Predict the 3D structure of the following.
Amino acid sequence: MGTVLRSYSPGTTDVVGEYPVADGAAVRAAVDRAREAARWWGGLSFRERRVRLLAWKRAIATRIEELAALIAAETGKPVDDAVLEVMLAVEHLDWAARSAGKVLGRRKVPSGMLAANHVATLEYLPLGVVGVIGPWNYPVYTPLGSVSYALAAGNAVVFKPSEHTPGTGEWLADAWPGEKPVLQALVGDGTTGAALCWSGVDKIAFTGSAATARKVMATCAETLTPLVVEGGGKDALIVAADADLDAAARAAAFGGFGNSGQTCAGVERVYVVRSVYEDFLNRLEKLAESASYGPMTTPEQPAIVLAHIEDALARGGRAIVGGPESVRGARIAPVVLADVPEDSVAVTEETFGPTLVVNPVADLDEAVRRANAVKYGLAASIFTKDTHAATGIARRLRTGAASINAVLGFAGVPSLPFGGVGDSGFGRIHGADGLREFSRAQSVTRQRFHAPLDLMRLDRDPKVMARAVKLFRMRHGR
């Protein structure tokens, strides 16, 4: 550990903190410590783990202002947004701690006719050590979607926070009240993350871009380390002709401009039925002009946002609010683009900035086709008074989640799994699926008595076999 990583406040030269970088040796040592801690932690009962997890929850909740201030300093987001992020994360932690026993504990399952002489049970056991590589845009809410559920499932966790938010990651690990290193944080860049992938952990949970996810997958493939990925998004919001346009416009503004547009499951595309298109644009324009949020967190992102704006306009799109002049260093003013060709990078690639592309469609069928046309599939929103139709539309969307007459509604529901398809990733965090994601299923049978028709032997009685075939035909052949 000879190198030091400095965390800077976005848009300034202020140093938030300095942290020693974990090299390969430090990563291996941390995993070794975690392996020993995992044997203890995994051997506890669900109740014993719940007590400790809820103590960690209380430590976070009682110091929420302190943590939120650190998040705001490292990401640039408003303190209120950071507070909301912590609140959402704590709700998930609470649910995971209280639900793990019910979801993962041993239970009897039907044995079936051929194995009626056996008792069958299923339970989900810890994997061992889970490595979590977190993002910078939501440095508490997003990684804790893996950390909380992995811990509740009985695993030890080695957490590598983003190099842009190292202090937040260390704060979370330092707040852990346990007597053993069940949760550790390692500061570093991509080299540290690669070392974690190589370290022999039992699973990696990664959040980041699809391009980086491919590199992580390639590294994990070398050791056959399983992986859960939450990649980027290019989420669409669909507005029907009968929608509450004020509510839809507010949702589009929040989903598109909140956190400076740096939300994987935020809104980047809006498809509005043509009959209400101009009305919707007028309402959104007023909201966009008064939108308030922080700077971009990383120095690279403004150039990407600018390139997307310029491509949209060069291809014939029009700027309703803002334009290239909106990109002012780390501060980007709201941008609303209309009538943007569907082959523009502003439509096909993740912008990850405070921009919205708003295009008209003939009907909801066209909206669904366009929403599904990109390589991402994280989430979507549908606004209509016909909730029955909206449910049908949600099922046709190639996404892992959808909200009806709201945006990001699923984020505050701990019992719902979260994840995407395509370049938005695979596997699930949150909910029962999230607990099982960090567990291994174990099936156990116990023979209660000898089978009347014993077929599980080499010296089968021909008469027994004939009776078994007859019963089989009676059961499955008619």
About this structure: DSSP finds 16 helices and 22 strands in the chain. The CA atoms of residues 159 and 185 lie 5 Å apart. The longest strand covers residues 118-126. The two ends are 70 Å apart (CA to CA).
